[in-house]
Design goal:
Elements: E1 2-7, H1 12-22, E2 27-33, E3 60-61, E4 70-73, H2 77-90, E5 93-96, H3 103-112, E6 117-120, H4 126-142, E7 147-154, H5 164-177, H6 181-184, E8 185-187, E9 201-207, E10 214-220, E11 225-231, H7 236-249, E12 255-257, H8 259-264
Parallel strand pairs: 1-2, 1-4, 2-3, 4-5, 5-6, 6-12, 7-9, 8-9
Antiparallel strand pairs: 7-10, 10-11
Helix pairs in contact: 1-7, 2-3, 4-5
Length: 269
């Protein structure tokens, strides 16, 4: 049985991770981690959640401790970097779904992956990861003569923009076209930006309501428009994909893995 720890367990994705994991007979919830000021620290995780009696005795904590096989991090960039160091110290494999890490935090993740198996993905929906593949294939086949625009929509409480998933789509497209994302990504438009440049890729973020996540990439020329899109019905799609990835990651050699490794047997990172 796989023992998991969840960081950010009190958040929207974290709560769904606990709920979906609780229904899986091959997974045991070993630890639920939240920030130091979290009001339920030290109390049973069943408080406020509807979990099986088998989770009785698992308490909210503020820091990773030994006892889990895999840590699933859906917290904050600061905590993700801290948890990467703790996972190494406790020899626990790590899965990161947290986005928005800066260069220093990203370096902490890269360093940890030299010591433990670490899987990182901007989105754990299997459909979204197929979208990454399809977006890259479309860009390769259509070539550089099509305009590319990426649009994402999330709930009004999401703190980073564009989403990590939208950046994942952009990475797939720019790699296929041989373009430098630092030079070609245009984040929204206002005023009089002038005529659209042929190589630019538009990035647009919508924040509204309780949306779990919508993403679309558009390829258009003067004659047609191709749109590849994905709609998340609920956050359980991310929880289910993350738990499947955690099972796959357990027992792997140290290294930085992506969902392409699991889905397509390829090393992209």
């Amino acid at each position: 049985m796989l023992a998991i720890a969840v960081s950010g367990a009190g958040g929207r994705i974290g709560q769904r991770l606990l709920a979906v994991a609780d229904q899986d007979p091959d997974i045991r919830i070993a630890q639920a981690i939240e920030w130091e000021g979290f009001p339920l620290l030290g109390r049973d995780i069943n408080i406020g959640l509807t979990l099986a009696p088998g989770t009785k005795g698992v308490r909210w904590t503020s820091e990773l401790v030994p006892g889990a096989d895999v840590l699933l991090d859906f917290s904050s960039p600061e905590n993700a970097a801290k948890n990467a160091r703790l996972a190494v110290a406790h020899n626990i494999a790590m899965l990161i779904g947290t986005t928005g890490l800066d260069a220093k935090q990203d370096e902490a993740v890269q360093t940890a992956a030299r010591k433990i198996p670490l899987l990182r993905a901007p989105n754990f929906s299997l459909g979204v990861n197929l979208l990454f593949r399809l977006a890259g294939e479309a860009a390769r086949i259509l070539g550089g003569s099509y305009d590319v625009e990426i649009v994402e929509a999330h709930h009004n409480r999401k703190v980073d923009a564009p989403s990590g998933t939208a950046l994942g789509i952009a990475r797939s497209v720019t790699e296929a076209l041989g373009r430098d994302p630092q030079k070609v990504l245009v984040h929204g438009r206002r005023g009089k930006p002038g005529r659209r440049q042929p190589t630019e890729i538009g990035m647009h973020s919508l924040r509204m309501g309780a949306m779990a996540g919508d993403h679309a990439v558009h390829f258009a020329n003067d004659y047609e428009c191709l749109t590849i899109s994905h709609h998340a019905e609920s956050r359980d799609v991310f929880a289910a994909g993350a738990l499947r990835a955690a099972k796959w990651l357990h027992g792997k050699k140290p290294g930085l893995y992506s969902l392409d490794d699991m889905l397509f047997g390829e090393r992209r990172i």
